[in-house]
Amino acid sequence: MPLDHLLIVAFVLFVVGAAGVMVRRNLIVVLMSIELMLNAVNLAFVSFSRQMVDHDGQVMVLMIFVVAAVEVAIGMAILVNMYRQKRSLSVDVFHSMRG
Amino acid sequence: MSAQYLPVLFAFMGAIGFMAVMLGLNHLLGPKPKAALTPAVKFEPFECGVPALQRDNRRRISVKYYLVAILFVMFDLEAVLLYPWAVLYRELGLFGLVELVVFLISLVVGLIYAWRKGALEWQ
Amino acid sequence: MPTDLHFSLMIPELVVLGSAVLVLLLDAVLHGGGPRPGEEDPRDTTLALSVVGCVVAAAWIPAVLWNIEGPRSSFNGLFVADRFSLFFKLVVLVGAALSLLLSDSWLRRRRLSSGAAHALVLFATSGMMYMVSAGDMVTLFLGLEVMSIPVYCLAALLRWEDRSVEAGVKYLVLGAFATAIMLFGFALLYGYQGLVGGVATTQLEPLQTTLMANAEALPLYARAGGLLVLIGLLFKISAAPFHMWTPDVYEGAPLPFVAFMSVAVKATAAAVLLRVFGGPLLAVLGLDGMLWVVAAFTMVVGNFMALVQDNVKRMLAYSSIAHGGYILVGVLAGSAEAQAGVLYYALAYTVGNVAAFAVLVYLSRQGHEAERFSDLQGLGARHPLVGGVMVLAMLSLTGIPPLVGFFGKFVIFKAAVAQGYVGLTILALLTSAVSFAYYLRPVIALFMRPTVGCEVAVIPVNRRVALCMGLTSLAICALGVFSESYLGWLSSAVLALAG
After folding, report:
1. Does domain A3-88 have CATH number 3.40.50.2000?
2. pLDDT tens profile C49-73
3. Which chains touch C (3 or more CB pairs under 8 A)?
4. Residues with Cβ < 8 Å from C97, sequence gap 6 or more?
5. Chain A interface includes B82 (CB < 8 A)
6. Residue B69 and residue B112 in one domain
7. Best CA proximity match to C362, nearest among C211, C464, C258, C259
8. What is the distance of C-alpha C317 from the center of its chain?
9. Which residues, given as ranges, of chain C have pLDDT below 70?
10. CA-CA distance, C285 to C381, in Å (whole number)?
11. Rounded to whole angstroms, how far apart are CA atoms C141 and C131?
């Protein structure tokens, strides 16, 4: 598979994820969109890595995997707290601070 | 290179097309019962399952599962970092083993913390 | 057996990490299941352990590593312990130790388990130390996350408080978003280095060499990669227009940890900006124009928004955005003097800001946060020494000679003019003048407002916070007065970056 096609897929995934972060209101979906962006990054790294027969990019991908999982774990913990507080997971309930 | 997969693509397109044609014909030609005039029995499943026991099947799941799930995700994914070591463990020798033990000890510290803080209790 | 392992270079990091793990274990073993009433909790032990860890790590740097012979890079370029990174490690460790001192009484008053908080600060500190030492995308990314994830937790530490949880969510979502953007940039640059540079590697130095060598004909995706990495870092340094999260996070997060976040995260982001984009690379990537606009916008937004706040924490948040703008001026100028100025500025900002937060922590009491200007009314007259520390901090942050803040600005602006950024420097001077107006407000609130119908509280002496205030005030004066003697020392740190 040519490098260009893989990169185009990665780019599309990244843009879809970024759009999701900016447009969606539900914070769980926002976290999922961030995961999508990270997976786009992973795809870009492995495609370059495959093209150039090099392992550095794959190491990076492993690290991104692990860190993404940790980020989600922390994110879910904070979101559960938020749900207990506000009974909602929508970004619309953010109004305690302004200015 | 990708030409050899063309038959697969054709098979897929054939399957999808056949399905679309069948459903479309059914939609066009089949009788459409009017809800008000049809006996209720017509809407029940026929030879393909039983009536649903409750209307809303989306039950809430206890929030306790989430803690277990999060702990699982973290400890599970750390296993990914063992793969590079597994590939190279002969070359790395004793040094690699020591590094691995250090890594695993740091995971055990996390486990001890979760255990002592009561994250593993179920009640 | 792999070669090129110099564990001795990362002794400070290992000390900090080790004490973090010990604190966590102590907290879990002695204090499992949360605080019980009437139980003596081990917070004194964990606090002592954390502060000692930071101090030992900080002392090791000038004592051993600064003048070390032999290689300064290790693990095949993953980890670089040059003087530049050592200096930033010192700044970060100072910020961490002072915030730990501040946090103790604050947490105690809220009956919060502090072991976890101390461990989080230490973990974040170790992440920052790895990040400023990063010679490779992998170390940079891991350091960034080891820094960010504990800081998200610190922001959301008061989990029953609306504002704290909100701060945590906002910081997490925007921080993770910024990280993803930066990583995509790294992916593109990795591809560029492999395809054009010939040697596929995630190391930063070969990448910079390749970019400089092909300055004439950079493909679009290399420029885009640089842009994305820059945007990710600008998020972290909270430069406008990527600053939206800062005021809310600073307002909602627990007071002592805001001090930590504001100084240490910003210093780290500045260090990484210098390491990745230092020197002429910005212009090669065609990003200098964009950074010019961002720096100008940041200074204007930060200073003018700070004018209209009535919450001191929010005011300090906007002022921290403004200081990020001055740091960006130094990064943009890019000469050796400008980079030395950025180092100096990071230190000046750290001591000044921590002093201001120390005063706020000191004046907060049970059920009464010193958050709004009205909360400070008349307290200076009752506690003149505390008020004096606030005056010093504010004057230093404004940049009044001979305090340390003045020399920070002076060095950066001089270097910027020398590099031809006259317009930007004039803007920086004007906005500095504006900053005087809002830095005066807490001082006025402390001393001059009459307190009609409101009883001025007598605040019991808190030795740890007092120690913190004393140390920072001393640093504000001494670092300013004796600035000549160690500017040369800083230049040697920057030379390490260049060569």
Report:
1. no
2. 999 999 999 999 988 888 888 788 8
3. A, B
4. C51, C54, C55, C58
5. no
6. yes
7. C464
8. 12
9. 1, 31-43, 366-367, 449-457, 496-499
10. 54
11. 8
